[in-house]
Amino acid sequence: PTLEAAELERTFIAIKPDGVQRGLISEIINRFERKGYKLVAIKLVIPTKEFAEKHYDDLRGRPFFNGLCDFLSSGPVVAMVWEGQGVIKYGRKLIGATSPHNSEPGTIRGDLAISVGRNIIHGSDGPETAKAEISLWFKPDDLINYTANAEKWLY
Ligand code: RTP
Prior knowledge:
The chain is of the alpha+beta class. It has one domain (5-154): Alpha-Beta Plaits (2-Layer Sandwich). The chain contains eight helices and four strands, in the order E-H-H-E-H-H-E-H-H-E-H-H. It has a four-stranded antiparallel sheet with strand order 2-3-1-4. Helix 3 (49-55) packs across helix 4. The mean pLDDT is 94. Ribavirin triphosphate (RTP) binds next to strand 4. Its EC number is 2.7.4.6. Its cofactor is Mg(2+).
């Protein structure tokens, strides 16, 4: 079957330094993978402070901006691109509300985090930011086109 345009939707997801330090990489990847989304790019990177400021450019001027950028550049981050129908919006649903105080149990932040400044994961909040963030973190060649076909490897 031919892929519909909607199925090619992609979002940028990052496991922040606290998620990496706490050993939650596989737990977080697992949730996206089991849902049925497809991983099309992944790398471990320590962003510079300047890079973190670019990533959070829209938050410049907020009181927590400097601390947030220090935090994002404090250690390894798992940067990923996930693909699938509705992945931008539903990815945010899997992640849960920005503040773990408000995120429902069953969501990543609801189950695994306590404070807003240490909320372990980032996800693009819309199609425009997804596009911008993917191209900030990845080169076009880093995104892998493939068909995920489980049966082929089982029999
Ligand atoms: P993200 O971009 O990381 O997925 O988070 P978000 O859209 O849910 O939230 P946003 O408002 O874009 O804020 C980005 C990150 O800034 C930190 N933050 N700290 N009051 C605070 O100390 C505060 N508010 C926000 C959070 O880590 C949030 O994820």
